[in-house]
């Protein structure tokens, strides 16, 4: 490994990973990942067989299976089981980054060259051998998407200037500057490795329609609007994995039917609402396990600044001031949620809570802010309000949020009409800015400034659907992205937040809390704070 500094151990935490990289100490274990069952269930030992049944979290079909292009958990929950990454978040300790298709890696002393050493004798589902060429092809597809390919996470890899493949099992990434966030960005669930030969032979649209990874499961059946089944890959490269014979994902939009299916045991894993969680805890605590914790998700309202009146900063400020964020937690979150800015409020990159609560729009007593909002609307020429369509995704959580927004907008005489749209179509509307107001339940894969701002808030960010940004924020983004001193980087991120939040690129009303329930016989399924990660079911087993 030349003069590269190395670090060997069981993994690095998602936060520590960035610091380790910054200090040029990022290297993973030289061995394959430790066997599953090393957690609480180790004494009993994993059992093979059985099928886990779960519900599609978003209660609707995925727009496609292309993990590089999509941004909804409906895609990771389905296609994610068929692929592997270069590196990944540990399935049993989701805050740690560990090897995957790369058995180990190192970082040069100057922090500008990563070298990944790949597992050999790995095959894609079609029998094609996995090599360094597939890694290079995947990264280039994300970084420089070909015509017709949308890449929401493109900017997270902007520091990579060259990808070299000295041999079939070595990949070198040359960086223009140190990039403390590179490892966690590579580990996220979206960074599936594709078969270069498969895509080049069948075209760039083939990952939308088919699944062809090196992962633990293969697609068996997909009935749109009903279910998607994957079955065990008998040739999986990790010895003894997966334990399950398959995973069945059901598409069930109706909330009552979803809860009933879980309570009767037809479904094994469930993401309940706050009210449903309390009911289940009160009635079935002896049969179920619960996981409750921070979530990389938030409720938001977009204003299309390419259209009037949202091109007027007074209108944007008025709508931001108007929103009752405390009321959102009580009404939309059923009492669950946190107030925050653009970064996870309980995370290491967030502004202090006392500072957040002083931001415009975050007052608990809304009277003064509502009056200020009315004055701004009058100055902009909209004292009597207006009528407007509010597009959203045709999913109950999105519609519930939209109902809250409609009620809030009435205070400014704005009559908003909810327009629910199916998943594939509403993403298309958002990307093309073909909307006025857009109500959205967001999630993201990493509590990392490069990932969050690079996807949502920069001037070139693929999911900056409001088309609002500032050069000042972009400049701070570039500075923090290459700062290797942890304290200095955090200071830059906080300053970036202070400059970005008042622009109201998004009106964020509530950060969600992650809630999960599963039957006790489901073992070693550990919820990641992001629904986009730890969705492979490689190490899950059934104790029955």
From the 3D coordinates, which CATH architecture of the largest domain would you assign?
Answer: Alpha-Beta Complex
Average of the residue pLDDT scores: 90
Specify Rg, calculated over alpha carbons.
23 Å
Unreliable sequence segments: 1-43
Number of domains: 2
Question: Describe the biggest sheet?
Answer: 6 strands, mixed
Oligomer: single chain
User: What is the CATH superfamily classification of the largest domain?
Assistant: Dipeptide-binding Protein, Domain 1
CATH class of the largest domain: Alpha Beta
Terminal CA distance reads 46 Å
Number of helices: 17
Strand order of the largest sheet: 12-17-13-16-14-15
Provide the helix percentage. Answer: 25-40%
Topology, pairings included?
Elements: E1 12-13, H1 14-22, E2 51-55, H2 73-79, E3 87-89, E4 96-99, E5 102-107, E6 113-118, H3 132-143, E7 160-167, E8 170-175, H4 182-187, H5 196-202, H6 206-209, E9 217-223, E10 227-232, E11 246-250, H7 255-263, E12 269-270, H8 274-283, E13 288-303, H9 313-322, H10 325-331, H11 353-356, H12 367-379, E14 386-393, H13 396-409, E15 414-421, H14 423-431, E16 437-443, H15 449-456, H16 471-482, H17 486-500, E17 507-519, E18 522-523, E19 541-542
Parallel strand pairs: 2-11, 14-15, 14-16
Antiparallel strand pairs: 1-4, 3-4, 5-6, 6-8, 7-8, 9-10, 10-11, 12-17, 13-16, 13-17, 18-19
Helix pairs in contact: 9-12, 16-17
